[in-house]
Amino acid sequence: MKPTEVAKSYDALAARWASPAFDLANGIEPHRRALRLAPTRGAALDVGCGANGRILQLLQAHGLDVEGLDISAEMLRLAREAHPGVTFHQGDICSWCPPQRYVFISAWDSIWHVPLAEQRGVLLKLLSALAPAGVLIFTAGGLAHPDERTDQAMGVPMYHATLGVPHLLDVVHEGACILRHFEYDQWPELHVYAIVQKAESNPFRSPVLALLPPVEQIPGTRI
């Protein structure tokens, strides 16, 4: 699927994201962990912000000036109605250019919709958009190898892809960032999240300078 097709699918799902039935706790505890590393002043970006604003509100409560990015026009229409004071951008993260550096970027359950061939470039873009000591939290499929699929598990056509854990760690290193936390948080589902931090000055030799907690060696299977 092309990103424009993913946008149409999320247009159809937008009301579900804004519904009181949506689990507003989804992703919040990992974000609280990531925010412990982040400055309490500066700009923050929620990539794939959706309609309910749960992550935006958490970042605001931390003292950050928040912006939201989403490719879905309907998601953003609902988000703007609910959060009129927030700056929202409509765009495809593959081609969208960050207007500034951010001390915190969230890409929770969003960039895995990026076409596999473009995921490395998108992740490097987000890493380069971090201010020194800035923090990025993102999710991915926890496989040992690159993979992609399209299905209708959400009721509409949807595309997911992953670079695979080894390649993800390589990109974090390439982007001059330090891996601070890595977790299979929904085991046995192969859903992983990573918290990475921009190096402030000195180059480093290893992509894993701080790993909390130790990563389990889990064999990869298809998502």
From TrEMBL:
GO BP terms: namely:
methylation
Name the keywords, alphabetized. Answer: Methyltransferase, Transferase
- Please indicate if the UniProt record lists Coiled coil as a keyword: no
> What EC number(s) would the UniProt record show?
2.1.1.235
The entry lists its GO molecular-function terms as: methyltransferase activity
Ranges for domain Methyltransferase come to 45-134
Q: What class of enzyme is it?
A: transferase
Q: Which InterPro entries match?
A: Methyltransf_25 (IPR041698), SAM-dependent_MTases_sf (IPR029063)
UniProt cross-references to SUPFAM superfamilies, sorted A to Z? S-adenosyl-L-methionine-dependent methyltransferases
**PANTHER family for the chain:** TRANS-ACONITATE 2-METHYLTRANSFERASE (PTHR43861:SF1), TRANS-ACONITATE 2-METHYLTRANSFERASE-RELATED (PTHR43861)
The molecule here is called: dTDP-3-amino-3,6-dideoxy-alpha-D-glucopyranose N,N-dimethyltransferase
Q: Which organism is it from?
A: Lacunisphaera limnophila
Query: What high-level taxonomic lineage is stated for the organism?
Result: Bacteria, Pseudomonadati, Verrucomicrobiota, Opitutia, Opitutales
